Amino acid sequence: MIYDIFVILDDSGNSNTAQFLEMQSFLIQYLSKFTYSSRYTQVSYLSVSKTATDYGPLGLYAGTDFAHLIKDTYQAQGDNLINLRIAFQVVIDLIKETAYRPSAHHLIVYITTTSYTDDPLTMASQLRNQYGQSFLSIAYGSNADVDKLAQLSGGYDCVIRAGIPGVSLDDAVLQAWNKTCSYAACNESATTTPAPSTISSPPPLSCDTKLLSNVIYLVIDASSAVSDDDYDELRNILVNFVSGYTVSNMETVFALIHLSDIPYYFPGTDLEYTVDWIMKNNKGDKSGQNLNEAFLLINSLVKSGAVPADLPQVVIYISGTTEFTENAPYDNADILVQASIKFLAVQYEQQADLNTLAYLVGGENCVYSATNSDSRNGMAAWLQNKTCTQDYCNASYTTISTAPTVPLSTAITTLPPDSCPEDMIYDIFVILDDSGNSNTAQFLEMQSFLIQYLSKFTYSPSYTQVSFLSASSTAMATGTLGFYKDSELAQIIQYTYQSTGDYFINIQSAFRVIVDMIKEKEYRPSAHHLILYITTTSYTDDPLTMASQLRNQYGQSFLTIAYGSNADVDKLAQLSGGYDCVLRAGVAEVSVDDVVLQAWNKTCSYISCNESAPTTTAASTVSSPSPHSCDIKSVKYMIYLVVDDSSAVSKIDYDQLRTFLTVFASEYTVADDNVIFTLITVSHEAMTYLLSPSVEDVVYTLINHNKQDGMGQNLNEAFLSVNQVLTMNLVPPGTPQLLIYISGTTEFSQGEPYDMASTLNSAGIKFVAVQYGPQADLSALAYLVGGEDCVYSALDSDSRDGMVLWLQNKTCNEDYCNITVTPSSTTASMTSSTDSVTSPPQSCPQDMVSDVYLVLDQSLNADATQFSDMKEFLIDYTRNFTFDSKYSRFSFITISDFFGTIEPLGMYNSVGALAGVIRLAIQSQSTEINLGMVLNYIKNSVPINEYRPDAHRLVLYITAAGFTDDPLTVATQLRNERGFSFITVAYGEKADVDQLAQLSGGYDCVIKAGVADASSADGVQTALNKTCSYSMCNESVTTASTTPPAVTTTSPPPTSATYTDAATTTSLQTTSMTYTDAATTTSLQTTSMIYTDAATTTSSPTTSKTYSAAATTTSSPTTSRTDISTVTTMAPPACPAGLTYDVFVFLDCSNTANAAQFLEMKTFIRQFIANFTIGPTNSQFLITSISDNVLNFGGLNTYKTYKQLSSQLNLMIQQPTTSTDMELGLQSVVIQAMNNSATIGYRQNANHLVFFITAGSYTDDPVATASSLIKQHGFGFMSIAYGPNADLAKLGLFSGGSDCVIKAGTPDVDMADAVQSAVNKTCSLKFCGA
């Protein structure tokens, strides 16, 4: 079938968001059915409102490209004009282009929710009669004007209705496809064609539903009982249903419950989000209906206040089956009936029994049967009319269980006032069990409980007074009654530490302290008296006699908190005077908030216990959490906790989440050989904390990380951080890896995260997710992690209580889902090249040893699609290699006017890890391509960066243009001196093949791709063939045996430039190149770019700048232009053998540097470190981010390889502050290391260096501390003054003298020279100020 098709989408503001999304979906499905090529179908896509947007000529895009183009089309909000004539003029212009084929079939497809606002009929007639175009219009929604569209299209037969009840999206697509395939579109005039009588409208409504106020619980059967086609049809019906209401908290609120084996809830308080959820929520494949869980979920929504309590409430249950799992749902249905909630049901498939549904909702009048197209056409109107008339049925059940529905021990009393009565007079003694019987998480939670509980009182000598004690083998009081209050108490509790190793709890000693305080003047006999004791066990002495004395003689009431599953409720009941005064906490079914509330109720109502307890029986409802399905103490894992700390999670919810996470982490054996945690918090940016393998550090970090208030989820950055952690080799081989994403929102910023998720999954990482806020879409989370079985909904206290156990059991069972993510960009399918391309092997030979530098042109010379395709080209190319330090290693670099990404060799252990970084590359805003910078970086890094003499060395450069500087000399040096080969990929029609041939050493090493006669896939195969067969070019292009294509000519190098051969260049001895006092250094005032030898080098005066490293250098005439990089060859470091260094590297992460400078400073550090042998018997480095705070991970002994240090640098980001507090850095890093040498790896006998790189200086006063380290402890100090704004004078004071300040990052200083100067200074052991 040969077609040229013009597709026009109405992107005006006339459609609502749901309709616009559906129209996009229609087009994507319709266009997915064609076979695209220059011989078969070509499509051009346009959008139209007030103006028309043309997305390219016929045939430019194909296949899934259209899906991306259409999805990326946005509505013109507020623009209600549709000037279709403008779009038709664009079509006529495209018809006149070369891609248009007069002999093909021709079709214009127009989709709209209205029609048009101009008069396009004359142009439509011209397109039909003069240009042979047929028309097909899609009238989407009930407001589309079928008559006007029929006039436009040439007949009613060429208008297809969609987006109305009774017409599913799939049906409309099928109709359009049938018309297209049968060439039955219209090209005649429509003025005499009558409207068909079959276009019907839905039945009228008995009220204006826009004025109604309701809470509607839509319980939707998403089980296997409903077929995929029927479910898609149901989605359209539901969109039509909800769109009839004013959706808001003040009018109609929807609670959307997706039901199969487990119910999921989504709040519908906005029409756009409600429709979006309905359209995106996918059907499950589980059988049965867990309706009990759904009704319990509704009950919890009512009780929690998540839905307005003052509105009429109705449950609409849409069912494909009445095969109820668990138990019959009638008991829980009755609970809802008693809360005045009404019921309606829809029989949506034959498996749903009408009698059962009628019994559930109270009668046949409240059940609608919708098992075919005719009945489904009226379903939305029937439901809407029910809400109009409110003629619901009265449900009553004869099978209600007589068993109590609430366990006695967890029954909640009426809610207390916001605070206890202000005139409530209390003297309270609080006792905290600080023994070693609780784990770290439990101890922190007990402290949190007390702080929350005590925050509720009004403190004064006239009202409430508190004394706080802690008890283990001894008891300690922190003051008399009333000595501390409010926040002071919170601080006292927070700074109480466990008695590690002390497992005794001598409560008698605490009671003796209390008896003594009762006898003091602060005690008020007329007040209410309470002793509150919180413990994870009970006690180890015999305090019952004293407890009885305190109750009977001193009038004390007792309240004990049994925290955790090991607390002995029976012993605590004896102590307290009854089971009613023992509250369970720290178990799966009881949240901290709940138990604080219970304790508060008892306190405010004075119903604590003061009777003797020996005759009180234990309550049978005191329960323990469900057991784990394995011994989690023995599991081995790398767990990445990716936690949403954005504004989508409230502070209260976030505090509760911290508690849950500490419980979760504390149950594992946290150690190198068991479980390692990495915490990544994410909002608009991601922050990574590599947690050292101890449970204390994990818990400390979780508890002390405060919530941010950023917007959205930059999940791509979070996943990139995980990817970078992978490159640090911290995970023992074979260790299972799990990423747990806890999300309050799925509003993803900086692009969708699915490609990166797929990358991590291909590296062996499994995923689970927790829906922790209503803005987190369950469908999006399920798609992200691979399925609904790997998502846990934790939106209320009940579900959150089970969250920890669910996550832990996931790590036990390892029943994860398989991620199948459709890549966000795919290469356009083009006609295969006519050149013969032999298929490469499945992978390059395993024993092939290659170091490959991938260079991506990120300039604006490529359009967005080309840039995406170029990235995919590189990824597809790398899939064929064996990633291993013995075989193939890759470096990835992006370039435009400056470096973008710089990732050194060997960073990646899999194609997935590399692909993640490549896909995150973004285009710059410049058209410049300074390729020479990249080649200089490669040249300078080869001798120092894990150099492998036996490796094949390749630069693969992909560009849509060429280059704008002059990189040819350094390219020649790389080929001739360093043994590099080049492959360049000329992507698209505008790539300069001649330029790239000069760069690569011959036309044989220029591969065309992304053009009509050379597909991207062909280009990848050709590049692989050349790589695997070592048949690349490394000769000069002028002598290349391969002649250029006849249509091109070789452009000679510019006559004004002389390309100096590196063999004639004298290597520079740069040991003298320090920046000293101006009086001792003479620099020549010329304009050359030549670095001369320190003693005898002679260079010619030119019209460019010459920089001299010593006062004796002279220059002499020449007319050649010599680039810095072509003349300077760095001398290798001359460090003494066996030199040991402990180097503290401080990177200024304030915003005094611009983004480019910040990247360069990190590159400087990398190149500096690469000169040293890293290890415990050689040199150790600790890299610290310094701004207004200090951030580093581990110690000097943490990083064993260059790659680990380089990865650590990747994790460092700039901070939004101008402060650089170096005094804080010296105290908290250097002094701390000296005082904790065993932990941090500080070696007394090593040489010690503080290395500080900054684009400014410092904002506090670190000079005295620096001077002390230099003079008293023998430290060397060196500062790198990066860029023109660095303060040389202040850095000289800090470093002990100007000789220890090295300038870099300015036009007159080459980075490689500055790095070498820093290395030489370090190796010389001659620093300033000693």
Automatic annotation (TrEMBL):
Residues 1039-1061, 1097-1124 are annotated as: Disordered. InterPro entries: ECM_Assembly_Org (IPR050525), VWF_A (IPR002035), vWFA_dom_sf (IPR036465). Gene3D superfamilies: von Willebrand factor, type A domain. Residues 4-154, 215-387, 427-577, 638-816, 851-1027, 1142-1322 form the VWFA domain. CDD domains: vWFA_subfamily_ECM (cd01450). SMART domains: VWA. PANTHER family: COLLAGEN ALPHA, PH DOMAIN-CONTAINING PROTEIN. This is VWFA domain-containing protein.
